[in-house]
Specification:
Keywords: Membrane, Transmembrane, Transmembrane helix. It is a single chain. This protein is mostly helical and 511 residues long. It has 23 helices and no strands.
């Protein structure tokens, strides 16, 4: 279909006739809600047969090995199978950035297989979702990083049609597809034979019954439903990833256009005043920032809690808001002349350097607070977040030196994932337990209720506590995991149950 001008009406003077294909209208093949500049739709494309078959096979394996509600090795196995099929069946090899993204995603998915801390496992899974889909979608802008994690919810319409066109290829030529009724009958007979004869063998031999009970998962109604859902999720992930590596959207085209820069004084004056404030704070408060124990003890009426709490959270907000200010300045500042670029480097560089000092101050305060009052999950995580913000300031400064930040969005995302992996590498709950037990051995003070409520990651540290106390850890009441829900921390921990409630009440009520 072509448009050769306004037929039947007067052609406006000075405009050439419009020639070429018109975009498909709603309901026509190739129509898409996305701009063709961003993500065109090929109405004739169909999935390769190997991709569909591999997706079905991986879906079956995933439904047997992966339980989304349990932190286990299933996440890692499912991730390895999905990436293997997505890139193993594609016509190209992963790029270096994609290899890095794949490695980070699988490393994050490995955390639930090693550690048992629920909060850490959930954070790693969220980070794996972000890094994994950003790897498949691609893009260099902040828009791509923000849109990529939500793109899977928009894939089903495209992927279902893409895979549906491959259905005829799944049936060998010269053969007729079996009728649905006969397929159902064969499956019913097969299941009946397995249930009847398997049940008889299990009743006849306790050893065989034990093997069947360990190898064959239960098939309760809710379990069957969950496995069907997992099968659908895995198939959708494989087909969605396979589609994206072949027809990736150009999300960078959606990024806002570079706006006309504002006059130099409009951004330089506010940022310069802010830099002066930062420098003044760092200079005047140098003794407070790095005084540590001596400053706390020598200041009348100042306790560890006041020293850390009154400063840490404010400094954390300072770090976060400073990144927002920098992003606005970089957006509106001009770079046309050498003087503009030089001034931008000086002012933003000063902001980044002083912000790193503020970050160090915040971490120092929280560290002193933990040394005095004990470690906790929240305190460890806020130190990790503040450390990551410090790395982001360094990245922004490096980008400012070269006046290019095309690599910055992905670098921020990847360093965030690396920070989370470093937190997992130190086994935070084990670290928390060790430090609190150290404090208990020195002072006799211990929040036993909090310590005994942590996951099996703390099991080695509890060996240093009195026997009556460590036997009251709540995780001892958990049943051992089945083989498909393997987790290293839970596997090596003791699950022989806790003493009666009254024997543990004294420890679980300690504050």
């Amino acid at each position: 279909m072509t448009n050769q001008g306004w037929h039947g009406t007067h052609q406006p003077p000075g405009l050439p006739p419009l020639l070429g294909p018109l975009p498909p209208r709603h309901g026509e093949p190739g129509w898409t809600m996305w701009s063709h500049r961003v993500w065109p739709l090929d109405p004739l494309a169909r999935a390769p047969r190997r991709v569909v078959v591999a997706a079905l096979v991986v879906g079956v394996l995933g439904s047997a090995l992966w339980r989304p509600t349990v932190l286990s090795i299933g996440y890692l196995v499912a991730g390895v199978m999905i990436f293997a099929v997505v890139f193993g069946t594609s016509e190209r090899r992963p790029t270096r950035v994609e290899w890095l993204g794949i490695g980070l995603t699988l490393a994050l998915l490995a955390v639930p297989a090693v550690l048992a801390a629920q909060w850490l496992g959930v954070l790693c899974l969220v980070a794996a979702w972000l890094v994994g889909w950003c790897t498949l979608v691609g893009g260099r802008t902040w828009t791509a990083v923000a849109v990529a994690p939500f793109l899977p919810w928009l894939l089903p319409a495209r992927v279902s049609a893409w895979a549906g066109r491959a259905t005829p290829e799944l049936i060998p030529h010269g053969s007729s597809a079996p009728k649905l009724g006969r397929v159902a009958a064969v499956l019913a007979i097969t299941v009946a034979l397995l249930v009847v004869f398997g049940g008889l063998f299990a009743a006849a031999d306790p050893a065989f019954a034990h093997v069947v009970g360990n190898v064959v998962p239960s098939f309760a109604v809710d379990d069957v439903v969950s496995r069907v859902l997992v099968f659908g999720m895995v198939v959708a992930f494989v087909l969605g990833g396979g589609y994206l590596v072949r027809f990736a959207p150009r999300i960078d085209a959606m990024a806002p256009a570079q706006r006309r820069p504002v006059p130099r004084w409009e951004w330089a004056i506010p940022l310069g005043v802010l830099d002066a404030l930062f420098v003044t704070f760092v200079v005047v408060q140098a003794a407070v920032l790095f005084g540590g124990h001596d400053h706390v003890l020598e200041t009348e009426g100042l306790t560890y809690a006041e020293y850390a709490r009154q400063g840490f959270w404010q400094l954390l907000w300072v770090s976060a808001l400073t990144l927002l200010v920098i992003s606005v300045v970089v957006r509106v500042a001009g770079r046309a002349s050498g003087a503009d670029r030089r001034l931008l480097r000086i002012l933003v560089g000063t902001t980044c350097v002083t912000s790193v000092v503020v970050v160090i101050s915040a971490i120092h305060r929280m560290w002193l607070y933990q040394q005095a009052y004990g470690f906790s999950v929240q305190r460890v995580m806020v130190v990790a977040i503040e450390s990551w913000l410090g790395v982001v300031f360094v990245l922004v400064a490096v980008a400012g030196v070269g006046m290019t930040g095309r690599w910055l969005p992905r670098a921020v995302l990847f360093t965030g994932a690396m920070t989370l992996l470093m937190v997992a590498a130190i086994n935070p709950e084990r670290l928390i337990a060790d430090r609190n037990v150290d404090r208990y051995e020195l002072t006799g003070q211990l929040d036993a209720e909090y310590l005994l409520s942590l996951s099996t990651d703390v099991d080695p540290a509890l060996a240093r506590l009195p026997e009556t106390m460590r036997q009251c850890a709540r995780y001892r009441d958990d049943a051992p995991d089945p083989w498909f829900a393997f987790n290293l921390s839970r596997a090596v921990a003791n699950h022989d149950g806790t003493p009666p409630t009254d024997e543990c009440a004294q420890w679980r009520s300690t504050s």
